[in-house]
Design goal:
By secondary structure, the chain is of the alpha/beta class. It has an 8-stranded parallel β-barrel, surrounded by 7 helices. It contains 10 helices and 8 strands. The protein has a single domain, classed as Aldolase class I (TIM Barrel, Alpha-Beta Barrel).
């Protein structure tokens, strides 16, 4: 059994008026024995979120692979560290689709994050078309192979499986769907990293809410969740944290 990890991804939502939600989430997280909790707000809120987090891990939603340079609108790993971020999401399906990020791009970002002491959450997931064609396992394990950093241990790397067809749609993969994919991801991690691969946490992401979280966490090899819209308020996010605590 791995210690559960629940990560909130605020995406392009949030402002200074919502920092009270972070304080409330942090308070609940301290009471959730055996669960690690993190929030990834927009870049503009990282530093103020850290100030209100009372120890709750605050992360970023993306990072550039380069150390510095002429990359307008981008943020480096060193900048994230200076803002006291502790982790970063890379390869989210929305970044892959909207910004045309390749597996190689994601891998470069993950390598940069690890080099700077940031925990990297590497996202993979299939489309509805992939699943309908029964190519979903091959697509996801192929993404994973191309996106994983050169080397990592369980404290540095997290994998998040997010079926694209379930993100923000209200659709949730069935327990059997999740079990099949997480088992395939686990096997790929062990093949890549050996014994360490068995200790790397695998999160499920895709319309996770209070009413389905417990069932998701009960699936083998589900070590937590990457939560989108339901992480924006303590009222919605705290019950998911509590479900992870059992």
């Amino acid at each position: 059994m791995h210690r559960k990890l629940v990560v909130g991804n605020w995406k392009m939502n949030g402002n200074l008026h919502q920092l009270g939600e972070i304080a409330a989430i942090a308070k609940a997280a301290r009471k959730a024995a055996g669960v690690d909790v993190a929030l990834c707000p927009p870049f503009t809120l990282i530093a103020p979120a850290v100030a209100r987090s009372n120890g709750l891990a605050i992360g970023a939603q993306d990072v550039h692979a380069a150390e510095e340079g002429a990359h307008t609108g981008s943020v480096s790993a060193a900048m994230l560290k200076e803002a006291h971020a502790r982790l970063v999401i890379v390869g989210h399906s929305e970044r892959r689709a909207e910004n045309h990020e390749t597996d190689a791009d994601v891998r470069a970002k993950a390598d940069t994050a690890l080099r700077h002491g940031l925990q990297a959450i590497v996202c993979v997931g299939e489309s509805e078309t992939d699943r309908a064609a029964r190519d979903h396992v091959a697509v996801v394990t192929g993404q994973l192979k191309g996106s994983l950093p050169e080397d990592a241990h369980e404290g540095e790397l997290v994998v998040a499986y997010e079926p694209i067809w379930a993100i923000g749609t209200g659709n949730v993969a069935t327990p059997d769907d999740v079990a099949e994919m997480h088992a395939a991801i686990r096997a790929a991690l062990v093949e890549r990293f050996g014994e360490r691969g068995g200790r790397i946490r695998i999160l499920y992401g895709g319309s996770v809410k209070a009413d389905n979280a417990a069932a998701i966490f009960a699936v083998e090899d589900v070590d937590g969740a990457l939560v989108g819209g339901a992480s924006l308020t303590a009222a919605q996010f705290v019950p998911i944290i509590q479900a992870a605590a059992g």
